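Researcher: For the record, we're logging two predictions in this thread. I'll number them. Prediction 1 follows.
Model: Prediction 1, sequence and structure:
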Amino acid sequence: MKKASLETAKLLRKRRFNEPVTAHYDTDGILVETTNEEGTCWNSPNYDTDARHKVYAAPTLALAQQWLREKKHFDVLVDREYFLGKVGKYFAKIIRLKDGAMSETPKYRSYDKALEAGIARALRAK
């Protein structure tokens, strides 16, 4: 499964994402995979005692999408444009579940890029 980028991981941390995951970005911004199957809450204060040395949890995009839906009430849906029977690029629809407000991302060539853009847009909203 595709992991969230460092920029998305920073936005997730800012919005208080603190779920157990098996990967994180270290203080140099390098993605580190662990063998711990249960995962670790990398955004907890136990792993970030020095404000200058941030460690960011790197969840899968699917986990970040689920967390946004359940905890922050944003639904991120990826769709594909169709034009005259031809399949086009992917884009994400972001729906704020509280009031139904909707926005879209630009179009991307891959599903993962569209999903990550939608997650980032939802995290910037509020």
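Researcher: Logged. Prediction 2.
Model: Prediction 2, sequence and structure:
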Amino acid sequence: MALFEASELRTLLKRPLTDDECALAHDLTEDALYGEVGKRLTDPPQRGVKSVALAVACRILTNPSGVRSEQAGGMLVSYADSETGVMLSEDERKRIRRIVGMSSGASSLDIAPTDATSCVTVWRAT
């Protein structure tokens, strides 16, 4: 599945990237998105997926190990909490879930097998 083109990633980052770097960023991004929404991600991807995927891929290439701050001599650079490594930020998670038609908020999730019967009994004073 093509979430984005290597040329789009190079253009967004404004620096040369090897094909291997682009492919790795794409694969890691796809894994992160698939881990969040599973098979609801279609091929071709739904409208809006590309912007989330490119944001994640750029972060993978600019801050792959999730560094929060670094210092060299007198220069100190701090990164925002949401800009760390391969994980999706809370906003990206909500957006990708909305795009594929999933609830983006808290919900009740029933993970019981479909053939399971309810074993809940209500206690009542007699």
